[in-house]
Amino acid sequence: MPPIIRIGTRSSLMARRQTTRIQVELTRLYPEFHFRQVEITTRGDQDRQRALTEFPKPGIFTSGLERALHEAEVDMAVHAFKDLPVKLHPDLMIGAVTAREDPADALVTRAGIDFAQLAVGSRIGTGSPRRRRLLASLGRQFQCIQVRGNVDTRIRHMDENATCEALMVAVCGLERLGLAERIAYRFDVARHFTAPAQGALALQCRTADSVLRRLLAPLNHVPTQRCVHAERSLLVHLGGGCALAVATLSRLIRGEIVLEAALMSPDGQRRIYGRATDADPGHTAAQVAADMIAQGCLAWL
After folding, report:
1. What is the SS3 assignment for 276?
2. Beta bridge partners of 170
3. Which residue in 6, 10, 154, 226 is the catalytic one?
4. Strands 201-206 vs 183-186: parallel, antiparallel or unpaired
5. N vs C: which end of the chain shows fewer Cβ within 10 Å?
6. DSSP sequence for 2-30
7. Distance CA 92, CA 90 (A)
8. Which sign does the torsion angle of CA 57, 59, 64, 69 carry?
C-alpha cells in the first residue's frame, strides 16, 4: 500500500470541492502517495444560529481543522485563507498558498434580476460586517439580514423560502460550486475592495513535518503569498483579526507590493483610505496601518 496522507477539510460542498482540487494536484505530482480526505466539523458548522460576530474566539471555520492537525488526526488541512486567524499556532504553518481566484464580491438575486432593478429597501443576506457597510454606502437603504449556512444552502433557502431578495457572496465561492451563472452583479474590486486573502486557499501542515513541507512547496504561488501576507499583516497592525471590517486590494508590480485598504464607517457614509508601496509585505502593511490609524480608523473597528 502507498503511504497515506490525510487531508483535513470541512464537510461543506464548497470545502470538499476546493479540497478535491488540491487532492487531484497532489496525486498528479506524487503518484507514490495516496491522498485521502478527512471531514472535520468546525464550530461554525455546529452552531449556525449565532452571528459570526458573536463567537468569542476567531477561527470558527478553521479551529477544528487546526486541532485535528495539531493532534495528528490529519496530516494537512485546506482552508479558505480569509477564514484563518492572523495568529497561527507556533506548531503549525502555511505550507503553500494557492494562486488567487477572483476575489470580488457578488450579488445573487432570487428573481435573477439585475442589481439596478433591486427595489429600495430590499433584503440582502450577509453575515459580514464589511459587506454590510459596503451595502450601506450604496444609498439604496437595503435591509441587511443575518444569513448563515453554506453558500449553496443559502441560495436554495432564498429561492424556495423567499428569505431575502438577494445574497452577497464571493465570486470565487460561486465558481467553485459551479454556480457562476447565478451572479446578478459583480462588484468592481478596484472600487469596492474585498476581505483580506479572499480568493486564496491556505494549505496548512505541522511545522515539524518536513515531508509535507516538501510536498506542498510546488503548490505555492509566490505572488499571491506575498500579497496575502501584506493584507493579513495589515489586520495585525490594526490590532484585530480576520473578522475586521477592513477591505483590501493588493497587487504585485515590478517586484513591489501595492497595498490599498479602506474602512467604511458603520453607517457606510464615510471612508478612510490608505495606500503604500514597498518590496516587503510587512513594511507595506505597517505604512498603510499607520496612515489609517492617523485618520482615526480605530474608532470604526
Report:
1. strand
2. 105
3. 154
4. unpaired
5. N
6. PPEEEEEE-SSHHHHHHHHHHHHHHHHH-
7. 5
8. negative
Residue in 43, 140, 148, 213 annotated catalytic: 148
Say which of 6, 82, 110, 232 is annotated catalytic.
82
Catalytic, 188? Answer no
pLDDT digits (tens, 9 = 90+) for 73-118: 999 999 999 999 998 888 999 999 999 999 999 999 998 898 889 9
**Grid cell of 10 as nine digits:** 470541512
Tens of pLDDT along 114-131?
Answer: 888 999 999 999 989 999
Q: Is 82 a catalytic residue?
A: yes
Is 242 an annotated catalytic residue? yes
Catalytic residue (one of 6, 123, 131, 232): 131
3-state class (DSSP) for residue 204: strand
Kindly report the pTM of this predicted structure. 0.93
Whether 270 is a known active-site residue: answer no
How many helices, marked H, and strands, marked E, lie in the chain? 9, 13
Q: How far apart are CA 144 and CA 266, in angstroms?
A: 13
- Locate 48 and state its grid cell: 449556525
Is 148 labeled as catalytic in the residue annotation? yes
Handedness of CA 111, 116, 120, 126 (dihedral sign): positive
